[in-house]
Amino acid sequence: MSTPFGLDLGNNNSVLAVARNRGIDIVVNEVSNRSTPSVVGFGPKNRYLGETGKNKQTSNIKNTVANLKRILGLNYGHPDLKQESKHFTSKLVELDDKKVGAEVRFAGEKHVFSATQLTAMFIDKVKDTAKQETKANITDVCIAVPAWYTEEQRYNVGDAARIAGLNPVRIVNDVTAAGVSYGIFKNDLPEGEEKPRIVAFVDIGHSSYTCSIMAFKKGQLKVLGTACDKHFGGRDFDLAITEHFADEFKSKYKIDIRENPKAYNRILTAAEKLKKVLSANTTAPFSVESVMNDVDVSSQLTRESLEELVKPLLERVTEPVTRALAQANLTAEDVDFVEIIGGTTRIPTLKQSISEAFGKPLSTTLNQDEAIAKGAAFICAIHSPTLRVRPFKFEDIHPYSVSYSWDKQVEDEDHMEVFPAGSTFPSTKLITLNRTGDFSMAANYTDITQLPTDTPEYIANWEITGVQLPEGQDSVPVKLKLRCDPSGLHTIEEAYSIEDIEVEEAVPLAEDAPEDAEPEFKKVIKTVKKDDLTIIEHTFGLEAKKLNELIEKENEMIAQDKLVAETEDRKNTLEEYIYTLRGKLDEEYSTFASDAEKTKLKDMLNKAEEWLYDDGFDSIKAKYIAKYEELASLGNVIRGRYLAKEEEKKQALRSKQESSQMAALAEKLAAQRKAEADKKDDKKDTEGDVDMD
Length: 693
Fold this sequence. Notes:
There is one protein chain. Helix content is 39%, strand content 28%. The chain is an alpha+beta fold. It folds into four domains: 5-232 and 316-393, Nucleotidyltransferase, domain 5, CATH 3.30.420.40; 234-314, Alpha-Beta Complex (Actin, Chain A, domain 4); 398-509 and 517-542, Substrate Binding Domain Of DNAk, Chain A, domain 1, CATH 2.60.34; 545-651, Substrate Binding Domain Of Dnak, Chain:A, Domain 2 (Up-down Bundle). Strand 1 (5-8) and strand 2 form a beta hairpin.
């Protein structure tokens, strides 16, 4: 049985949660952190994923890829790439499919990986973290992504999960997942005909800002409006601080950190920490040792100065709020509560701006960092066939109108708006078309002018085959079940031809008809399913062959990482054995080895140490094992003698303790028997006394 797994795929850090033990638990990683850096790094032999990648980022700057979800599904010619490039330290390149990829040096060679592959590497890492922490089987996952993600990006996330060996049961908007987390744990929500509670969720994370207006009733949630600013987040604050100090240090210390990527990254990392300190303090010191050219830098920044630096950002705070309220057809006064999530909402000036936009105080009912992951885990549990969860229904909103079009085979329209902007999903629509044979269909955004710049109009297309045209008929009616599924993906779920047939149907008897009255029949026309049609889909999802190739490649890299880790472990074991055995040979083991054995073993240890730091510094796993076994062949014999003697001492001590305990027990029992005998004698003496008066 798979344990439901929820992943908040963050730009800077990702949070993992699982549904177990009748609750939702956050999964800690290998260093006990409740979030994992969304980083993929590449080294001379293996990959550095998550925490390891973050720790090596400064020293491995050109081969470390962060901001994964910003380039997922992004075209190389997209206007966003220019803005995103300044946040990347690795080289971004154009792939054969015109998408963005990263060029890195891995295992001594240049490699180019797509954003989908990079994301899969990270997802595989967090999957392994969840498995190690929970000791459970992890196969199903619900992944939370930004609400502004396009259909293509959602397919890419799903493919990344599949490459990592997971089944993406749902791709959910991150703020909607937070809303689910809010709704399932609130016990005071309105019921029945009561007015729903209107809650605004403001999520400002590392790279984007989302405002979503939701209506809650007990056991249900409906998204009324969502608006985003996908270039507003904590990293913009970090960048503003870094640029400020870059100018200051250029004049103060005569160094230009913009010319040195490692130095710039060190200041950027320190700027992030400074930003957090200023959230709780009005002034904070800033110092970094040996930034570049052996120069130590120091300065300070006030909260007031930071607010001045980010003033252009703060002026954009109210726009997503205004647009979300307009889409929901509500005003700020209609909102009952404003919940803030995302790490950047801890910045005091931002909180003040958000509060002013709604004209009411802010709520922090939810854990700002973990609410999305917990909601995703609950949604995954809903899809589990083996778990029973509290009933909770939720509906998201279509940000853009979607139309379906088809071949114009007969005199009818060739397109139709099926899912209007502002309508809810998941949803299903049935349409009937008159066809003369096999045909094709396509889904497109209805109004390209309403989409973000350079968003492709195309969504998907399908070939419908198996249409049989009866003799004597000009066309055959075909019914299609069009669906926007829970992940917001548009599909054709079912297609079949129909026909009208004449059947006899019993006429209902009158109320006063005699009991033995015979029923009357009439002929009626009924529409019934005739033939199931074949649907061949063409979506943004990877083809099976390509998907299998990427899965195989990922498995090869996993095996390589595992081999490197095991080799390093064997090397460390050998090194530890050499020093431990040498230290004990003249101490604990001294009396258990002959002079000849000591001389031989010390010579073996010295040669092994020389080999380890010379030819064996970068050897293979088998050689480390062989060296260890060579030393152990004699060392373990001596150690065995020592352990046998120690066990003999323990047994002797144990026997002595047992004898002592038995003697003490015997003495105690003898004392008890004597006390009982004395008590009986006293009783007899009392009974023998006679009063002679």
